[in-house]
Write a structure and sequence with these properties.
alpha+beta
Length: about 160
């Protein structure tokens, strides 16, 4: 990190998708092989999106989704291995949490091996929200029965 010029950005358009793809491939077993196209869609549908830069090099990233009042979820928190251990990850998550869209009752995140890191920021283990639905493509084959949709006509 010698001669670093670290800065944080919340501008979606500033993110180099190829650098982001590479950062995920280097850093996150759970995000290896994501396509540039899919990353673009995920970013477009997220707010806030925060990136961390050392000059022109993307070294960190996180994004979130929020309803703006009740719930929010943080996704895809990564810091390049060469920059870990310097407080950038904590500052990255705190930057996401300080965004106006994140001022909600509860903020969720999923982590496999980083519970202790998130506990430093104030997150708590929550064993009550453990359900997940993988790939919804199978829903088309579920029987719908005789569901009829009725249109309400106003007087």
């Amino acid at each position: 990190m010698k001669n670093s010029q670290i800065h944080f950005s919340e501008r979606h358009a500033e993110i180099d998708l190829y650098q982001l793809q590479n950062l995920f491939n280097i850093t996150a077993f759970w995000a290896k092989g994501r396509s540039v196209e899919d990353l673009s869609i995920a970013i477009a549908n997220s707010e806030p999106v925060v990136s961390v830069w050392d000059r022109e090099r993307l070294i960190g990233f996180a994004r979130a989704n929020s309803d703006g009042i009740y719930r929010a979820t943080i996704w895809d928190v990564v810091i390049h291995p060469e920059y870990q251990g310097n407080g950038l990850g904590i500052k990255l998550v705190e930057t996401v949490l300080s965004h106006p869209r994140m001022q909600v009752e509860r903020v969720y995140l999923m982590t496999t091996y980083q519970r202790e890191f998130y506990k430093k920021i104030g997150f708590q283990t929550n064993s009550t929200t453990t359900m997940v639905l993988y790939n919804q493509s199978h829903l088309d084959s579920l029987p719908c029965g005789d569901v009829q949709l009725q249109e309400s006509l106003g007087a």
